[in-house]
Design brief:
alpha+beta
């Protein structure tokens, strides 16, 4: 089955994963992992609103890599931090702990 790059965002799995992450982050009071500041959950226009981020950009993973699944390769970061980070990985900073997978 051929899927567009954004197909996962419209099939419900993306929304469920984002909702799960939001719930976890709100309960724990976890800050943005990129800048350390708190999230703003009640204003989607705020640069501090949480966006779901792929820890390793999908463009840098092979098509069959299991980390392409949202549940293995996502986290919440600020909307602004996500835009600034773009489609790159900063060595030693954005690397996930692969032993947790």
């Amino acid at each position: 089955m051929s899927m567009s790059k954004r197909a996962g965002r419209s099939d419900g799995r993306w929304k469920k994963q984002r909702a799960k992450l939001v719930k976890q982050v709100q309960a724990a009071g976890t800050p943005c992992p990129l800048c350390g500041e708190a999230f703003v959950f009640d204003d989607w226009r705020s640069p501090l609103y949480p966006h779901m981020d792929h820890i390793i950009p999908l463009s840098q993973l092979a098509p069959g890599d299991p980390r392409r699944q949202e549940s293995l390769n996502t986290r919440l970061v600020h909307a602004e931090c996500n835009r600034k980070r773009g489609n790159r990985i900063r060595a030693g900073y954005d690397q996930p702990n692969l032993t947790e997978w």
